Fold Exostosin GT47 domain-containing protein.
Amino acid sequence: MMMKPPVPKLWVVISSAFLFCLLVLFQISKLDLIGTNLQITHHVNNFFISIVGSSHNQTLNLTRNANESDGIKAKQPEEEETDTCAGRYVYMYNLPSKFNDDIIKDCRPLIKWFDMCPFMVNSGLGPQVSESDNTTARVLTAKTGSWYSTNQFLLAVIFRERMKHYECLTNDSSLASATYVPYYAGFDVSRHLWGYNVTVRDELGIKLAQWLREKPEWRKMYGRDHFFVTGRIAWDFRRVRDEDSDWGSKLMRLPEFANMTMLAIETTAWANEFAVPYPTYFHPKSLTEIWKWQRKVKSVKRKYLFSFVGGPRPKLDGSIRGEIIKQCLASHGKCKFLNCFVNDCDNPVKIMEVFEKSVFCLQPSGDSYTRRSIFDSILAGCIPVFFSPGSGYNQYIWYFPKDYTKYSVYIPENEMRNGTVSLKKILGMIDKERISRMRNEVAKIIPKIIYTKPGLVGPEKIEDAFDIAVDRILERVAMVKKMMEEGKDIQSEYYSQTKDLKKLEII
């Protein structure tokens, strides 16, 4: 009998199948584990890469910040710098020396009967005031070294030196919003006022006009963005006829200069002329100096009710000076008269001492409407008394408050001439409280009417007469440019906007 092969027991089959499943599962888990490890390794690598990258960037940032703190700024591609001079750039012509330096090189004949040479030093500020005199120390803040014997006709030289240090001066004329022409027009005409024919008086101005026409900067606006400064009054440049007996030059009647803006110590009614302050004796180096000086002039005791510094004029010229001097001398000590015909009125200490001791300072017209004395008296904290609107109110519209009653007294000239006004009575009736308010307003004007030393920068920088003039010129040029784009009549349109400020009478 044949034997059947043995049949595997059920448990053996089941056990074998179970072992096979475990093996399969193990292989699958092994593959998953390997894959998972690869993913973990990939994420860890990315993590360390990010740490290294972040560390590198932080190192770059720390290095950049360290460089910036040392004044070395590494400019980043994404950074945008703000141009603080945008719209304020000024281009200054490098004129041939015959238009400026050569004129003042021969300084003796610049003004007949007066030697200008001693006043050319210190960039046109003149000789520094000595500190050795006790009177000087009492009247001025002489130890600061900011007081100079500055001549009133040196403004063009002073302005040019300031422009050399202007923060937004550019050598790239394409960036410029305005162009400055450093021509010494005042000295050019003053050396030829006596004994020269009109051809000689006009010669250099005509040559400059020709020189300007050939420049690419001129063709941008044909001179309407150009300006220059003169240390004389505007009437000296507006001769109407070509007669040798007539006064001055015809500079401002040349077509080229008729387009330009002139800054002068006194203007006429023309719309392209603007008055800037006469130079004073004070040229501070910091705001701190200004504050100290303002405190002094507001607190100093004043001995005289009013004063007049100047010389008499013949009655035939219609001057009211004779009446002013008469009333001053008859005031029983209320008025101080410093006669410049017999006293040295070029002495800063002597002038400032009178003004510092006076509550009111009389400012009648001189050879023209305005006087340098106006600004010397304001500098001393003395309240100006005007007799003609043309002496101040219609002139220095960039510098004086519109409400003239805040800082000055106005007495019509014709009333003085008729003898119907008593200066002692009118000025004596103004109460102390109002005087105090007016003096405070006068003190506020001081920073605006001085010309600081060249090169002043930083937090101690003062917005002085120069800065105000440049800012207003830039505003004017921008307005003229806009009017040109709109096709408007520049002269008539601009005059219509300024005639109220420059009209001949205000009262």
